[in-house]
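Contributing new records

If you add data, match the layout below exactly. Sequence lines come first and carry their own label; structure lines follow with theirs. Keep one chain per record. Anything else will be rejected by the validation script.
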Amino acid sequence: MFKKYLIVFFVSMVPLIELRAGVPFGTGMGLPWHTTLIVCMIGNMLPVPFIFFFARKVLEWGCNKKYIGRFFTWCLEKGRHGGEKLQAKAGRGIYIALLLFVGIPLPGTGAWTGTLAASMLDLDFKKSVIAVMSGVLLAGTIMTVVSLLAKTGILSLM
């Protein structure tokens, strides 16, 4: 059982898939939805402070390197573009927009991208973490409901 939770925890830490994959993965393995959601949220939130304080510096450092430069430039541009787009649409409600950006479970809109965008925009760390954490809770709730409905629907077809 612990091994399954560990797998779900690490899946939730992976950029781009995050808890959007961790929750369905955990419920699909037969883990209780409530503990799966908590483990996924912790796994998804653990990298957030590191991303906020160090990711931009590492990406800027790696932009001109031979083998990693193109990928690092792409990540930097994605974060910069996401941040500018978010700020243009949100204006003064930037933290609500950040919450929704992270909370709507679409590809590329998770805690990693949202935190990178907040870092690029030099937003307040504490307010950004609260917005990202709330977004992770929203995304986790949505994915839990969808996973349980899908699991129930699949089981009823059998």
